Structures are given as C-alpha cells and as structure tokens.
Amino acid sequence: MSGTRPGKSLTKYKIVFLGEQGVGKTSLITRFMYDTFDDHYQATIGIDFLSKTMYLDDKTIRLQLWDTAGQERFRSLIPSYIRDSRVAIVVYDITKKKSFEFIDKWIEDVKNERGEENVILCIVGNKSDLADERQVSTEEGEAKAKLLGAKIFMETSTKAGHNVKNLFKKIAKSLPEFQEGQHAGALEGDNSNEVGKKEANGSGVIDITTTEDQAQGGGCQC
Amino acid sequence: MGIEQLRLSVKLGGASGDGGGERISGQRVGQPRKSPSAPSFHDKMYASRNTSEPVLPNHVPALNSSNSADNASLNDADASLSVINLYGDEVESRRADDGALQSPEEVLSDDPGLSSTPFGQRSSNSATDGPDLDRYGFKKQNNFITEKEYNRWWRDYSQYCVRRKHKWKLLLEKSGFPIDNDSPYRFPPRSEKLKRYVRKGIPAEWRGNAWWHFARGQEKLNKNKGVYDTLLSKMDELIRKKKVVADLDIIERDLNRTFPDNMHFQREAFQTEEPPMIKSLRRVLVAFSLYNPKIGYCQSMNFLAGLLLLFMDEERTFWMLVIITSKYLPGVHNVNLEGVNVDQGVLMLCVKEYLPEFWRFIVPFQNQTGSDSSPNSSPSLGKNEFLYKLPPITLCTASWFMSCFVGVLPVESTLRVWDCLFYEESNFLFKACLAILKLSEQELIKARSLKLLRHHSISDGGDYNKREIQLNQDETEMEIFQVIQTFPKRMLNPNDMFDKVIFKKRIPLNRLDQDEVDRCRKYVAAQRLKYKNYHELIGTSNRTNESGLNGSIINSGDRDDTKHSGLGSEENADAAAFDFNDDRTASDFVNNALSSEVYGFKRGLSGVHWNNSIKEKVRQMRKRKVSSNDQLMKN
After folding, report:
1. Fewest CB within a 10 Å sphere: which of A28, A102, B64, B400?
2. Looking at the record, which segments are called Disordered (chain A) (predicted)?
C-alpha cells in the first residue's frame, strides 16, 4: 500500500432512482443486484442505499445506488441526493400513463439540482412484460426521452429480467467517457434497445453475470 | 366495561352488509388457511371479538363474519396451538413429535442454500406448516437474517417471553386485575415498576390491549363514537360514485406492498379474493385520509396500520393511527413532511449532545478543515446549520420515525420499541434511535479504520487537496449511511438494545425525557421556520449561495454554549436583512443570527453523575463484602 493511490481505480458513481410510487424502482435495483424478482416489494420509505461493483474494460467502478420513495411528498426530501449524482434514472410504468406524465417533474428536479450538463439522464419504462396493459408506447417513451434530453432510454421488465443488465451496462459504459471530456455524442441517438444491446455485449463490459445476460438476448418472455 | 363493548363484533350485521361491505367481504368464508400455526396468534384476536358486543354496524362486520366463520372451524383446534406458536420451546417439542418438520440437526446444519437465496422463496413453504414464519406470520428469513439465525435466537428469546409473561401475570394478579381469556384490558397505574415491565416487553398476546390502554385509545374513541363508521360510509360513497381521489389511488398501490412477507397480507396464487387484512388496511388508511386531509395518506402509514392490525381490530387501529400521527409524531406525515425534518433536527441535536463520538462521524472533517480556508470542502458545520440543512444520514433516520421502526428493526425488536413508545411517549423513539446509533459505533469504527488504512497510508502529511477531502467526505457519508441503514436490520435480539444501552442509567442518553424532547422540537421548529422566513425575505434560494454559505459558517464566531435570548439577534437581523445586496453575506448573517441561539440541554447537576458512580462503587464494594462474609460464614 504505497506509491499510487490504491482507491484510484475504484471510481464511485452515484446513481439516483426516481419515479412515481410503485413503478418498480426497488425492483429494478433488486434485479440488478441479486437477479431476483418478487411480485411485491415493501414500499420504500425515505431512501435506501446499495452499492455494487462493476467491471468495465480494465477498470472497476463502484455504483452507488440510491433508491427513493416515490410518493410526491417525499420529493422535498430527495434533492440533496440528486445534487451530486452522476446518473439519474427516472422510471415509469408503461401500464400507467400517469407515471409517465410524472417523469417531467422528476427530470425537472434533476435539472434544477444538477444542471443538464452534469448528469446522465436515463428514462426507463418498466413492466414491459405487461404488454396487454400497456398505456405508453415505446415510441412515446423515446420521444419524451429525446425531448427531455435523456441520454438513455430503455424499456425493461424486472419481472422477466429483460433489459435490466443492459441498462446498467449502457450506463456504466457511458460513465468514463462522460468523465473524460464529454464525448456525449457517442451516447446519443442509440435509443433503440436492439442497438444498445449489441453495443453492450460487444464492448468490454465484463459483468460478473454476463453469461446469463446473453441468455436474456432472446429474453423477453412475454 | 367500555372496552368490552368496543370490541368489534362479528356476528351482528354480517348479513346486512351494504353495497360497499358486500363488495369488500366477498366470499372468503371457509377459505383454506395456509398455516395452522402462524395465524393462530391472530385468530385468537379475532376470536376474542366474537364474545363482545357490536359497535360497528355494516361494513366491518361483513368482513369479520367471514373471518369468524373461518375462526369457528379453526379455533377449536387452534386454541392449543396458539400457545405452541407463541413459545418456541413448545414448538420444539411439537416438532419432535411430528418428526416431519425440522430436526435439530437440520436447523444447525450449515446449509448455504438457506442464506444465499433471500428472495424468491415466497411460496415454497407457506403451503405446509410454515416453520419459516414467525409467530406473527412474518417470514423469519430476510435479506439480513437467516432462518437459522432466527431459530437459534428464538430458542432463547421465546423462553424469555415465557418468563416475562409469568411475571406480568403475577403483577396483574397482585394488582387485582383480571386476566380473563388471556386478554387483560386493565393494567396497573403507572409506576417505575410498570415502566420496567413494559421495557422488558409486554406479552405479545396482550399487546393490542396494552397499547390501547397506555396510549389512551379508549378516551379518544369515547370522544369520537361513530366517527369511524361515518368515515367508512363516506369511503363507500366515494367508491360508489367512482370519484377520483388522489389518496385512494396511492393507498391502493401500497396495499400489496405492505408486508409482502407476512402471510396475513399476502395473496397466494390460488386466491382470487384479496386477504381480509388487506381490506382492513384499505379501510383504515382511506378512513384516515378522509379524517385528516392535512396528512391524507403518507407512505409509511401503511406499515403503522399494518402492524397495528396484527394486534387489534380495525377501529382501534384507526384511532391508534390518529394518536400516533398527532401525539407521538406530530407533523411527521404531513404533506410537507416538516415534522419529520424537525424530528431529524432534534435527533441531530441529541446525537451531538449525547453521542459526541458519533457526531464526529456525521460531521467528520470538522477538525481537519474547521479553521483552515477550504470552505467548500466540508459540510456545513455551523453551530446550528445542521438543523436546516440536515446531514444526509437523516434521510435514513427519517424513515425510522415515519414508520416507527417497522421494517427498520426486526419485528420483535420493533414491537419492544412500540411497547415503550406507547408507555413513555415519543422520547422513547429518540432514545431508541440513539441506542441504535450507539450500538452501531463499533461497526462504524470498523468500517472507518479499514478505509483509513486504505487512504491515509498514502497521504500521511494530511496534505489533502480539496478534491480529496470532498471525495473522502462523500465516501464517509456513504459508509455511514450504509452502516446505519443496515445495522438495525440485524438487531434480532431486542434485549441487546435494552440491556446494553436503555437500562444503563449512567449512559447520558437515558437522561433524555419527554420534556426535553418537547422543548427541543419547539426549538428546532422555530429555528427552521426562522431560517425559511429569512431566506424568503432575502430571496436567496439558489444553490450557489448555499454552497458558499456552507463554508463560511465554519469560520463564523466561536462556539457559544450559553443559550442567548434569541430576541436581540433577531431584531438585529430584521433590521439588517434589507441592507444586504450581497446574497452571500446576507446568508452568512442569517446563519450567524440563527446559530447564536444554541439549544441548551438540561444537564442536571454535574455532581449527580459523580455521585451515582460513587454510589455504584459503594454498592459493589458492599456486595463484595457481603459475599465474602457469606463465604467466611460458610467456611
């Protein structure tokens, strides 16, 4: 333990999860962390914190995930957690139009706290397995993501395990680039899930659970 | 007796349920119960209602009738089981008889599968006898505690519960109060002895009645007879007219997210009808949101109501919720959540006062940056600034208050806190927080020293640049957050908190009393309000100011421990506030003005402490003497 700073390669990134109550923020995190799913998670009160190490190229990064309570009145408590987040993931439920409309407010909060430039905005439409109950189309989602300046848009199903790993890969992948002088251009425009997926798999992302991720390639069991 | 009357009756009115009631009750009658053991604790509660007179006419009984039918078939068999379920020793013997469940070896065997799959075993066992459930129907195992750990702990704790219940029985008999049906509803007058008994745990089967008694639920209900009914009919009307009420939708979404790990709240795949518990929960929460629109529904109230429902009927649950949200946690669930912020401020003041070592963790870089000129590198360390810019840790502790530790501590520990909360009032919540923080200190030190090893070995001279300090600051915050968030979830044994902290009179935090908490709440609320008003006045709400302000406070003035009369500084500030063009200076000024009023804790006579320790020493010496004398005598 001498010479170079050992902690240096372990860069930490703060990711905050926002979105209306019951859209699946906790579920998204749980799927990512433990690759499990339950029909119901206890409602999150206040804020929960989890961290996970990811491998990206030859670097190890540590993701600090902040799970927040979704009810409107909790919004007043959360800003300080947005303040120094590198990534903000705003989640909505594709079967609930209202939760989709609500993302504007969250995005606004993020922009107010962070400024558009300093944060990677992600919009995630969750519960894509519930195709029958869909109220928000993928196109609407994409359009809104573009409109609000979100760099990443994805539809996920935490239940089916669809696209969750990809989402985090995509995020992780965009991080160091993002840090080294804003090559934001590379990140934009690949809103299609398919493109994202290929890219993620092709890149040097070595997640611990990569194998099972490939299985997800064919994945959406809906 | 009033209470007797108030027990919800079941039989009457069951048939006459109106539209709302019918719809809600459905056809649950005779539905198979998953576990004969787990629900017996609860069924007993329901059973006790059967004997009493009706109070609520339509809606509730409609539910209860289905329940009673359920019970009717179960209770005979269950009457004996309930005891088995409540006390592990008997569970063990029964298991041995059955031979089919778990053998002791299995319990002790090192099965990695047990701990490695915290999720996804929802229905694996619940269809059987449910040895994986605790006496309230919660899964023993969760992310933080394995079933093995639970069983090992429960083996001793259940014995403890048996002993405590025996003592309670003696106490009640001695005081001349009946214990009919194992459901006493009168308790001795308040005393140090009773307080101690409560702190050591109220018998689980008595909790509903005891809480109701200590929280003066009956008084509240007597003043509001029929109110709950009226609210329920209002609710039915709303639903019938399909009015869109925001709270209703929000409540609906939380119903199934309340105790998904409890069998009474979960719906199995084969069930088409939702569990009665969920229906009760819906009614209580909706009724409350109609009763108190200022609060409406706030997430976390589902947990409060949910836990109460395991111990008492709906109407009582409703009134207990009213009492909790007004008396014990005023403003905490309000739309602006100001009450919770005030309580966090109070908690921070208490930490600073009673756990100074821990306070270092919360504002860890005070010494390093306090006097130098790196203002942006550390969090606000002004005398009082943490009251309005609450340290990050408070968003973790906020949930401790909002849900009164439900989901924070394991359930048996939560219940012990609730016992004391209803007997001792809200100061106990603060005590419990402080006790948890105190106990977690070791963990923090562990985490801290690991990190220090990693980081400080390199930059020995302490020549941090700002960025590094900032980084470390963040990291420290995360670490603290993680430890504080996780630590209580592992506090399986409630006696840890009590024996190691609460019962140790000489630990300073035990000086905290209700009077102090009330005073402190007032002070923090006033400070926060003033701060808000000043800021609105000056119009400094943008962030650049705040960050500038963070550092400047560090240098402002010397610590002033005496409590100023706030008046003088207030006037000054008022006069001066308008003169400032520079926002930052104005903010400084506001903070100076505010932080010159420092909260003064009651310290008592400094000598008292001393005397106590001497007393203790003398007592020990005497004991030693006596015992040595005894030995001499024997010899």
Report:
1. A102
2. 185-204
Q: Sort out which chain A residues have CB atoms less than 8 A from B118's CB and list them.
A: 34, 36
B256 interaction partners in chain A (CB closer than 8 Å):
39-40
In a domain, A217, yes or no: no
Three-state DSSP class for B231?
helix
Q: What is the mean pLDDT of residues B185-212?
A: 96
- For the segment B70-110, what is each residue's pLDDT rounded down to a tens digit? 333 333 333 332 322 444 333 333 333 443 333 333 333 33
- Name the range with the highest mean pLDDT among B65-74, B146-155, B437-446: B146-155
* A17-62 pLDDT per residue, tens: 999 999 999 999 999 999 999 888 899 998 999 988 888 777 788 8
- Residue B564, SS3? coil
Instruction: Enter the ipTM.
Output: 0.79
Q: Please, which residues 66-95 of chain A have a Cβ atom closer than 8 Å to chain B?
A: 69-71, 73-74, 76-78, 80-81, 84
Question: Rounded to an integer, what distance in angstroms lies between the CA atom of residue B511 and that of residue B514?
Answer: 10
> Which parts of B245-313 are beta strand (E)?
none
Chain B residues close to A30, C-beta within 8 Å = 119
Q: Quick one: angle between helices B314-323 and B301-309, nearest 10?
A: 140
> Looking at residue A75, which CATH number applies to its domain?
3.40.50.300
Q: Cβ contacts (< 8 Å) between A70 and chain B: which residues?
A: 299
Nearest one of B54, B122, B48 to B82, comparing CA atoms = B48
Residue with tokens 């299995």: B106
- Is the minimum CB–CB distance between A43 and chain B shorter than 8 Å? yes
Report phi then psi at A220, rounded to 5.
-65, 105
In a domain, A211, yes or no: no
Q: Per-residue pLDDT tens for B544-582? A: 444 333 333 333 333 333 333 333 344 444 434 444 445
- Secondary structure (3-state) at A212: helix
Q: How many domains does chain A have?
A: 1
Query: A114 to chain B: nearest residue by CA?
Result: B543
From B336's Cα to the closest Cα of chain A, the distance in A is: 6
Tell me if A185 is assigned to some domain.
no
CB contact under 8 A, A41 and B257: yes
- Would residue A207 count as lying in a domain? no
Listing DSSP states for B138-153 in one string gives BBS--SS--HHHHHHH
Domain that holds residue A102: 12-178
Written as six digits, the tokens of A191 are 């809103």
Q: What stretches of B426-524 adopt beta strand conformation (E)?
A: none
Contact, B346 vs B520, CB < 8 A? yes
